[in-house]
Amino acid sequence: MELNNSKPKRITWWQKNQIKISPWIFLAPGLIFFFIYVIAPIFVSIGISFYQWDGLSPSIYVGLQNYIELLDDEYFYISLWNNLKWLIFFMLAVPIGLGLAIFLNQIVFGIRLIKSLFFFPFVISQVVIGLIFTWFYQPNYGVIAPFLDLIGLEGFSILANEDTATYGIIFAGLYPQIAYCLILYLTGLNNINSEQIEAGRMDGAKGFHLFWNIVLPQLRHATFLAIVVTVIGALRSFDMVAIMTQGGPYGYSNVLAYYMFEQALSEYGYRMGYGSAIATVLFTIMMFYILFFIYRMYRNEREDNN
Amino acid sequence: MKKVIISLIMMFGIISSTSFAGTLVINTDTSDAAPKEAFEYIIKKFEEENPDVTVKWNVFDHEGYKQSIRNFLNTDPPDVANWYAGNRMLPFVRAGLFEDVSDIWKDSGWVDGNLSENMEHAKKSMTIGGKQWGIPYTYYQWGVYYRKDLFTANGISVPTTWDDFVAACATLKAAGITPITIGSKYLWTTAGVFDYLNLRTNGYEFHMDLTLGKVPYTDPKVQAVFDKWDELVKPGYFLENHAALSWQEALTPMVNGEAAMYVMGNFAVAPLKEAGLRDSNLGFFQFPEITPGIPMAEEAPTDTVHIPSKAKNKTDAKRFLIFMSRADVQEEINKILGQLPINKNSSVKKGDPFLAAGLNMLNNAYAMAQFYDRDAPAQMASEGMKGFQEYMSNPDRRQKILERLEKVRQRVYK
């Protein structure tokens, strides 16, 4: 028979391993770029932090010198402290966003329009928000100047005062961040199981009690996400600082990300090594947080699967 | 087949046209209106005089240029680039990115008369290691711009000594006028005040020693400068909230008659006039004497043109630099710029009292400083100016600030 005559079909290496290999082929473009633009620069940057280099002349190996200098640098501590302020006060975006989301989560005429208006700040570029708030804060003729006059702070400049500058910038930063949290919670509220709320009502829960024990647990994923984006937003608070104060007055509103830029890349800087050292410190702080985040995600997924 | 041949011919065409010797690539940061117009004029005139050369001119954004010059000098060098004199060009000279053009300065056969002589007062700021690295084409004076009408109304005459100056401030303050306006948001304006106080208290040589890192910031002579500064800061003679304002925003109180003086460069005149001030109520005077007998040096930042050492067409680039040094060319450029020519044989735009005063002052100047952020290396300058701003807001922190600057000095100049 013809069938018997034919040789047994040879299975090629490709056919044997196809299933194993194809995901990697599909992943390859992403992985390659992720490696070139994310992973490799991290190590290159850590490497540069051991050198003294202005970007033009040959670099000189200085060991830990940049880090030692960092420990003795006033501006570094000011920036670190400001980063902490950002982390704490930027968190206000989460509860405020939640409050607004609950307020807007009702069915009335024109609610879509109102929702989109509340979402609007997130659509505006950060640069524009920074500029507008700078004008708001302008002493004597800014929007808030009359209110400052009322409480006896005539001609007070929020951004020129070393004690208030950072808070002024955080406040401006909250404006779009609240909108972001709002949208996260609005989507979360859409997925709330109404049966559970019914059941809760039957059992006599209402008001805050209902919210705290029945609604909020169901928003767990939204809350987690809101906190994550807010923390990351706080740690990379670069654009607002750059637009509103350039770290001024005299470095008192600096944050690590901007201080790094100032040292490594601004007009008067070009201390690549020192800038990289600051970047490495910032990266370490973020790493702790990212690891915690990944760990929680991993644990949650396992819980969900079980 | 035909197509291949055609495209081959086209490729050769492209290659040969780029390698043609008569193209001169010029990169400048002249994105503002007047400087742009000036360069348009220069290039047109240069092409008219040198029909064999075609100029390719790339204009960069003024701020972005500071970043891009570091890249293009290495990777895609033009034949001519503009930059600034003094220590500002030091990193490029040190990295071997600028061409030594001492021969243009030496050889009088190149130009109308001897360049070293015609531009003698600017030679120092173009010299590093005994060689010249570019050609200066414009500069402008710094000094005190003031409201003549406010001075008259309060019976103040133009102060020539420090005591008169402080007394004038006191009178103005008592009349409810801010004596000196300043906007220090971008820091550099504070350096103008510091430079003049130091030049007048300790003289040009000490100022240069300080910016060259030879003197500690804790030196008693530096303390003396801050003693003088105290006399202005402590009674509140400077504009409040200066840290929140850019230099342009700080012009507003002066235009409104709420402030009387501004320690500034001549570029402030144009916006002040645009805002409504006239020659009748806007005036200029030289920063007053502090220590009697010290020769008066002035602040006069200079703009320059250079040949990158990796330039492809150095022959024409040199022709361009020589052209830029000529008295008639500098005269025309500076008429457009509203600034002062470096070449002594150029005359100045007539009918502008500020330029006339500036020219007179600079021609009699003992020496010329380039401005703190051009005389001192960039890293020192940035920390220094930050310190000046902090001092102006908190004069009590003087000691702490100076100690910090001393720490920076020891690092930067080592």
Summarize the structure.
By secondary structure, chain A is mostly helical.
Outline the structure in words:
The complex is a heterodimer of chains A (306) and B (414). Helices cover 72% and strands 1% of the residues of chain A. Chain A is an all-alpha fold. Chain A folds into 2 domains: 2-48, no CATH class; 73-305, MetI-like fold. In chain A, strands 1-2 form a two-stranded antiparallel sheet. In chain A, a hairpin with a 7-residue loop joins β1 and β2 (60-61). In chain A, α5 packs across α9 (165-190). Chain A is flat, with a radius of gyration of 26 Å. Chain B has 2 domains: 2-138 and 302-360, Periplasmic binding protein-like II (D-Maltodextrin-Binding Protein, domain 2); 142-299 and 377-412, 3-Layer(aba) Sandwich (D-Maltodextrin-Binding Protein, domain 2). Chain B contains 20 helices and 13 strands. Chain B has helices spanning 2-19, 33-49, 62-75, 90-94, 102-106, 115-118, 120-126, 148-153, 162-174, 188-202, 204-211, 220-233, 251-255, 269-274, 314-325, 327-337, 353-363, 372-375, 378-393, 398-412; strands at 23-28, 54-59, 80-84, 127-128, 131-132, 135-139, 142-147, 178-181, 259-265, 282-285, 298-299, 302-306, 368-369. In chain B, α2 runs antiparallel to α16, α10 crosses α11 and α10 crosses α12 (220-233). Mean pLDDT of chain B is 88; it is low at 10-20. The chains are: A mainly alpha (306), B alpha/beta (414). At the A-B interface, loops of A face α3, α4 and α19 of B.
Biggest β-sheet description of chain B: 5 strands, mixed
> What is the C-level CATH assignment of the largest domain in chain B?
Alpha Beta
Q: Give the overall shape of chain A, derived from the CA principal axes.
A: flat
The name CATH uses for the topology of the largest domain in chain B is D-Maltodextrin-Binding Protein, domain 2
Number of helices of chain B: 20
Identify the overall geometry of chain B. globular
What is the chains' assembly state? heterodimer
- CATH superfamily descriptor of the largest domain in chain B: Periplasmic binding protein-like II
CATH architecture of the largest domain in chain B: 3-Layer(aba) Sandwich
What proportion strand of chain A?
A: under 5%
CATH class of the largest domain in chain A, named Mainly Alpha
Average pLDDT confidence of chain B is 88
Whole-Å distance between the termini of chain A? Answer: 54 Å
Enter the CATH topology name of the largest domain in chain A: MetI-like fold
